[in-house]
Design a protein that fits this description.
By secondary structure, this protein is of the alpha/beta class. The protein is built from ten helices and three strands, in the order αααααβαβααβαα.
């Protein structure tokens, strides 16, 4: 895609300041909206000016799979200044599952071959229905593929979310919850031995080794035989 220069726009005199206010968005006034509770005369003046406009920062407008999906910092990083919509990671992964291309890679073929020969296939990842960093349907699609390929043993190492979505994620999206167990029961063995309460225990933005160190130790614990 090529963006043509606007003929009628000759630039504007400086200085020009671009400010990306992380965490500031448009929402209804209330106890969950810190911006509406604070005294923000400058922000109020900018929003109420004649040159103010609004952008949609979630869903298909920014390359996410559906309009029910919220935006986040990574979506903004990939979209700001792009001039067009880019498919975000979750949508690219969905497309790979829909086309089956994810199972055509050399890496997956090797994994599947080992599983067919009797080895346990291990899945390690984020369990979430936030659809930004992960979605439970991706895991269920992997389990379905293993069942179709006659893989008899799968071990799932779960990192619960607690950031993109609310903490009680496990009870809502676990592969063992009502309406989801069919694909798991068709396998000989599905183990979930190493659930971590939040993904920050296995991946954190800060150098909190007292918390991070707990993650690898739990992941490395053996699956049942």
């Amino acid at each position: 895609m090529h963006l043509e220069k606007l003929i009628k726009f000759h630039g504007r005199p400086g200085p020009l300041l671009l400010v990306v206010a992380d965490g500031v968005g448009l929402a209804k006034d209330g106890p969950a909206n810190a911006l509406s509770l604070a005294n923000t005369p400058v922000m109020d003046g900018l929003i109420n000016s004649s040159q103010s406009t609004q952008l949609i920062a979630h869903g298909t407008h920014v390359g996410l799979p559906s309009d029910a999906d919220m935006g986040n910092s990574e979506v903004g990083h990939n979209t700001l200044g792009g001039g067009r919509i880019f498919d975000q990671g979750a949508k690219l992964v969905n497309s790979a599952f829909e086309s089956g291309s994810i199972f055509q890679s050399d890496s997956w073929q090797k994994i599947e071959s080992r599983g067919i020969d009797g080895a346990t296939i291990h899945f390690l990842g984020l369990l979430s229905d936030g659809n930004v960093h992960a979605h439970i349907d991706h895991l269920l699609s992997l389990i379905t593929r293993c069942q179709q390929a006659a893989v008899r043993s799968v071990c799932i190492h779960v990192l619960l979310d607690g950031r993109d979505v609310d903490p009680p994620i496990c009870s809502r999206v676990s592969p063992a919850t009502p309406g989801r167990p069919g694909r798991c029961q068709q396998l000989g063995r599905v183990f979930l031995p190493n659930c971590q309460r939040r993904r920050s225990y296995g991946r954190d933005h800060g150098p909190l080794w007292s918390r991070l160190g707990n993650g690898p130790a739990r992941i490395q614990s053996p699956c049942p035989r």
